[in-house]
Amino acid sequence: MSRSLTLSAAFAVLVAFTGCGSGFTPVSGTVTLDGVPVEGATVVFTSEDGGKSYSGFTDASGAFSLKSGEKEGATPGNYKVTVTRTKSVAGAEGMAPGGADYMKQMKAQQKQGSKETKSELPQQYSKAESTPIKVTVPVSEPVKIELKK
């Protein structure tokens, strides 16, 4: 019986350290436009029912990692992926691009139909209703998002 307790305790420690049971799976990848890395884009994974979303922001190499608040990754499920890059988001000065406050400000601007938030990337990728990109989480390797003009 003590061996069973020892194994149970070891498993509990393993779960605590690896994040298993948290429901979040790491998700990272790259975004390219006609083969060229896209810097400064916001990548949003939105669940098919629209109830959950996770976002990331691309660096100079087009690489991103998803987050939701302070949690890294996304929960398992099927997602529509949108990719936008805007020149500026009014009211977001000083905010970390891709951060939670930045994303709230950007979504508010989009709902108001602000021209300042129009994506510099092809419009089909900017809305969940029109994006052709779909991803199922968990993923076994980095996600390659290849946009075309």
Describe this structure as you would to a colleague.
There is one protein chain. Helices cover 19% and strands 29% of the residues. The protein is an alpha+beta fold and 149 residues long. It has a single domain (24-147), classed as Carboxypeptidase-like, regulatory domain (Immunoglobulin-like, Sandwich), CATH 2.60.40. Strands 1, 2, 5 and 10 form a 4-stranded mixed β-sheet that branches. Strand 1 and strand 2 form a beta hairpin. The termini are far apart.
| Cα separation of the termini | 64 Å
Counted beta strands: 10
The stretches of 5 or more residues where confidence is low (pLDDT under 50) are 1-21
The succession of helices and strands, N to C, reads HEEEEEEEEHEE
Q: How many domains make up the 3D coordinates?
A: 1
Radius of gyration: 18 Å
Largest sheet: 4 strands, mixed
Remind me, CATH topology? Immunoglobulin-like
How much of the sequence is in beta strands? 25-35%
